[in-house]
Automatic annotation (TrEMBL), chain A:
GO biological process terms, semicolon-separated: protein retention in ER lumen; protein transport; vesicle-mediated transport
Keyword entries, A-Z: Endoplasmic reticulum, ER-Golgi transport, Membrane, Protein transport, Receptor, Signal, Transmembrane, Transmembrane helix, Transport
Protein localization: Endoplasmic reticulum membrane
Highest taxon of the lineage: Eukaryota
GO CC term (a single one): endoplasmic reticulum membrane
Alphabetized InterPro entries for the sequence: ER_ret_rcpt (IPR000133)
Organism whose genome encodes this protein: Sesamum indicum
Membrane topology value: Multi-pass membrane protein
GO molecular function: ER retention sequence binding
Keyword Ligase: no
The UniProt record lists the keyword Membrane: yes
Protein name (Swiss-Prot/TrEMBL): ER lumen protein-retaining receptor
Family matches, as Pfam families: ER_lumen_recept (PF00810)
Secretion signal, residue range per the UniProt entry: 1-31
Length: 215, 10
């Protein structure tokens, strides 16, 4: 495993921890999109079907369990926790799941490396992960006050994707036959979705003002 | 082999 991949995984882990910190400690999920969190839970559930059949490494297994466990517990907190759920911006978080899930499922059935259940599900999870941030970005744009933790959460998620691209470039030049068009293109699309957010994030950081996205 | 190597990422 190269440094970019490891840094990417750690950034991803940090994003989840920041979100759990906000939810668990502050007992608030204000500004967090439940739709995006549900999509991530679906992404991990469909991607990690190999959890009990293919052993890669202890690291790999542990990280899969952490991402599965954290994504489902975040969804549980926002939906059912009696204090946390009160802060959920339900009226603002109106993105429809099936607008994203159905096209991704169709695309995975049409474009995949191998037409097997597991491979189609894996491909579906890649496509869905690429667009799963959209409800969150829409909510950020609608929310007047983006608190620090929410801003950092989205920034860390974007950084994780950017580091994965560096990881692929590194692997392409260091490993023989390392070519994965589906992973790369969906990963690139996913990272590009953060471009706008990154721009405003750095602007607010540079000028030392509160993060706010233009309507 | 291509598919297996792809699945070592998270």
């Amino acid at each position: 495993m190269n440094i970019f991949r490891f840094a990417g995984d750690m950034t991803h882990l940090a994003s989840v921890l920041v979100l759990l910190l906000k939810i668990h400690t502050i007992k608030s999920c204000a500004g967090i999109s439940l739709k995006t969190q549900e999509l991530y839970a679906l992404v991990f559930a469909t991607r990690y079907l190999d959890l009990f059949t293919d052993y890669i490494s202890l690291y790999n297994t542990l990280m899969k369990l952490i991402f599965l466990g954290s994504s489902f517990s975040i969804v549980w907190y926002i939906r059912y926790h009696k204090i946390v759920r009160r802060s959920y911006d339900k009226d603002q978080d109106t993105f429809r799941h099936y607008f994203l899930v159905l096209p991704c499922l169709l695309l995975a059935l049409l474009i995949n490396e191998k037409f097997t259940f597991r491979e189609v599900m894996w491909t579906f999870s890649l496509y869905l992960e690429a667009v799963a941030i959209l409800p969150q970005l829409v909510l950020l744009q609608r929310t007047r006050n983006i608190d620090n933790l929410t801003g950092q959460y989205v920034f860390l998620l974007g950084a994780y994707r950017a580091l994965y691209i560096l990881n692929w470039i590194y692997r392409y030049f260091t490993e023989p036959h390392y070519v994965h068009w589906i992973t790369w293109i969906s990963g690139l699309v996913q990272t590009l979705l953060y471009a706008d957010f990154f721009y405003y994030y750095f602007q607010s950081w540079k000028n030392n003002v509160k993060l706010e996205l233009p309507a | 082999a291509a598919i297996v190597s792809q699945h070592d990422e998270l």
